[in-house]
Amino acid sequence: MRQWKMLESGPEPLSQPVYLDPSAVVTSPATGILYPHVEPDRMVEQGTVLAHVTDFFGQALAEIRAPIGGLVLYVVATPPISQGQPVACIGTPRARTNS
Q1: Tell me: the pLDDT tens digits for 8-48?
Q2: In angstroms, rounded to a whole number, what is the distance separating the alpha carbons of residues 36 and 49?
Q3: pTM of the shown model
Q4: Complete DSSP assignment for 4-24
Q5: Domain 30-95 coded CATH 2.40.50.100
Q6: Domain limits of the chain?
Q7: CA–CA separation, 82 and 86 (whole Å)
């Protein structure tokens, strides 16, 4: 907003921005009860179990694994989940290089 003269002051521009590229939203393959295994702001490797889903009687339906390695940006914390709903988002931090 400072650039457009809407404000006289504000935070300085970032000197070393970090981009999250690639990123992936992981969805539930089944409807049931979600049990997260990771927390936001944690680095994970590709294939790490992020959560598992059971049916309403406790029988395991699916394991949800990280499709890419990176930083866990969010994990859904509400237990009931439907097939296709987001479970987590992972972004791979990349520092911007000046070329």
Answers
A1: 887 787 888 889 999 999 999 999 999 999 999 999 999 99
A2: 9
A3: 0.82
A4: TTS-S--PPPPSS-EEEEEEE
A5: yes
A6: 30-95
A7: 9
